[in-house]
Amino acid sequence: MPGDRGWGIVATMSESSGTGTEREVDVVVVGGGSTGENVADRAHRGGLADVVVVENELVGGECSYWACMPSKALLRPTAALAAARRLPGAAAAVTGEVDVQAVLDRRTSFTSGYDDSSQVEWVEGAGLSLVRGTARLDGERRVVVTAEDGQVTTLVARHAVVVASGSEPTTPPVDGLGDVPHWGSREATSATEVPRRLLVLGAGVVGLEMATAFRRLGAEVTVVGGSAVLGAFEPRAGELVADALREEGVEVVVGDRAASAARDDGEVRLTLSSGRELVADELLVATGRRPRTTDLGLETVGLEPGAALDIDASGRVRGVEGTWLYAAGDVTGLAPLTHMGKYAARAVGDVVAARARGEAQGEQAPWSPYATTALRQAVPQVVFTDPEVASVGLTEEQAREAGVDVRVVALDIAVAGSSLHADGYTGWACLVLDDARGVVVGATFVGQDVAELLHSATVAVVGEVPLDRLWHAVPSYPTISEVWLRLLEAAGL
């Protein structure tokens, strides 16, 4: 680590017995994932010298080792293969099958072999300090960190404590499931071999991405989706993804729920509410996540353990006196996505530094540099299934619930660019319009490689660009983005 940069190190009563120390620093960031790293970096760059990151697992967090990066590394090789097979000429050059071990090895390379030394090097090179251990709040501005060897360090923050502890998977109330060894998202993305039969409980983003990956790597896959597929998105998006999975041989069960689970002789048996029994070698439970706040010591500052941290626009935690406790990322329950965590982190790190300088006091206006407005109004997300789903802003249902004067424009993606992109291209696009204001408040695209359309939609939503002005944003020909022209024509322009 770099030098102590002027840390105040104060002996405590426990230190005299050799059990702990107390340090006064500028900022304590609880959680060394991508959100925590960005909070710390921005606060330090804003002029706060003594910024400490506390992490009890791998520095870099869920995204680097068990979520975004390894999951997309599992998906990308077979997506490229599928794309080649949709193009006559290219398809003729595909003469072999996917090299499963090479895919798994490349996945592991993106996790650095589950070694965080390069991330630690970045933290130290950025002028931050890392403390390893489990963190708990201990009253105002105090964080007690217990290392793996039992050593205790108490960090006292002059300016702020920022909670960026992320989220953890939830387990549904299925009889017997708690006694059945099963995969969560971590086990799926770090798997060292492909099971012959995989059951996926949950038809959200994680469940469908992993169903896609493992089916294309050779597993027999069944997805049990409860009431809907991709239920948080436009219904048509879920329908198209489910259809594509079925075409690839995945059984997608909708309208039937898991009732009980058991493991016998190495096989997982999942009984559905209809009485049907499904059997597999592995079970992936991907039914959602919750903020990781149970063991953070929230009760010491008057907050409820286990609940999401309620924040104002600047990331300050409500219900705690003063402006010293902040939160960013999944722990807030808002937009639990890596890019949104980093976005919130930038605002929080900047506002902590600004307030330490005597600036940015009081409530922050929407869209100011110190506000996290997009967490509630303009969240972009890509589901890396095949077809991809890319969405931003409000769905039709969400817009109606919010009282928006809704008009929806939707059509199949059938433009010159899509027909060149792949034979038999199947896609769909939808704009949710605020008709009273003449702006886009939500957009969804479904199809091969539509993720690259998403940022233009995000700019339109965030910038509240009037439709008559969007008409003059001419899409290049022949690209899939020509669908923008068709959507605006359908909107009456």
Automatic annotation (TrEMBL):
GO molecular function, one term: flavin adenine dinucleotide binding
Residues annotated as binding NAD(+): 202-209, 288
Alphabetized Pfam families for the sequence: Pyr_redox_2, Pyr_redox_dim
Keyword Iron: no
SS bonds (residue pairs): 63-68
The UniProt record lists the keyword Transferase: no
Coiled-coil ranges per UniProt: none
Free-text cofactor note: Binds 1 FAD per subunit.
Cofactor requirement: FAD
InterPro entries recorded: FAD/NAD-bd_sf, FAD/NAD-binding_dom, FAD/NAD-linked_Rdtase_dimer_sf, Pyr_nuc-diS_OxRdtase, Pyr_nucl-diS_OxRdtase_dimer
The Pyridine nucleotide-disulphide oxidoreductase dimerisation domain, residue ranges: 379-484
Domain FAD/NAD(P)-binding: from-to ranges: 26-338
Sites where the protein binds FAD: 72, 330
Domain of life of the native organism: Bacteria
Keyword line: FAD, Flavoprotein, NAD, Nucleotide-binding
Record-stated family: Belongs to the class-I pyridine nucleotide-disulfide oxidoreductase family.
Matches recorded under PANTHER family: MERCURIC REDUCTASE
Protein name: Dihydrolipoamide dehydrogenase
Organism field: Pseudokineococcus lusitanus
